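Subject: sequence -> structure tokens, single chain

Hey, anyone have a minute? Need the predicted structure for the following. Not urgent.
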Amino acid sequence: MINSLNPEVDRKLEFIRQTLTETGSSSLRLRGTDWFAWATAGASNTVLLTAETGVAEILITAENAFVLTDEIEAQRLQDEEIPNNFQMHIYPWADVAQRESFVREIAGGGNVMCDRPNAEERAIVPSLKSRKQTMMSSELERYRRVGRLASEAMTEVLSAAKPEWTEYQLAGAGAEALWARGLHPALTLVAGERRLPLYRHATATAEQIGKQAMLVFCARGNGLYANLTRFVCFDFLEPKDDELHQTVREIEAAALNFCLPGVSLNAVYYALKTAYEKHGYPQAIREHHQGGTTGYLAREVVANPATSDVLSENMVVAWNPSLSGAKIEDTFVIGSDGTLENLTFDRNWPSVEVEGRLRPLPLEI
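Reply:
Had a minute. Here:
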């Protein structure tokens, strides 16, 4: 990608410029780490992992495409990240005002559209947001790699885990396995035996994991998020826990069956709601968010009763239905015929078929 023109970027620039014309905007300004990765075909402006914005941004007009960054970052970005579809505008690190002057000059007094707009800028239109969530073939190639690496890291870590490990150790081992594969550990949640039934979003603690544990990854590579959840049990799973996991797999199947082009996100939400009620857990849908679309954010849109966004071919979803003590999650891309490709499937992980799909079982050690 580096030091060459990227055809994926060219196609995105063409779409952006068409959108600028349609909206009467002079330019598009992209600050977020998500939009930066999307527009550059997977380049990164991230230094601080937890930041929503990075050390560079993008400015696109009808004639030009710029990466705006300071003199600290410019050479590394030019050498290692940015394709030649972009010109560099470099400003002194201590003079951010120069960057803003450049944007005003390039915009020429016209409307500036932005992913994180200030008072003078306008928000990005829905058509661009939809385009960002719909993967091109080249993006799917990168996504498959990220998903494969993330799932391999998960299998490696939980296969080596010990009941005397603390939750911190398990989370740290997960982060190490992701970094070793070139992925950002954007999220590593851990719940051991005691905390597992208590909390849906269990951040790690110094407590030993005990007989069983849950590990959750949001792993980022080339700006794309692979989201997955797995369980490990030291000894055999108790029958009540086995039944709980089976129920969650059946509830998830209701959502996956609804993931078809043309279906709205709130329709999937209501399919999950009905499934919870059918299995005798009518309140469960209120106890944790259920997931939604993913891509350049861990969740692009979280499904709820009001989300009318419509699914389409090559959108990516990650659902995480849960009950107290059990959860399930993988990252799927939607095919034109309604088939789902599991991007985070690892054949070395134990699985069972549920409505024609292989779904993960807890790993029993």
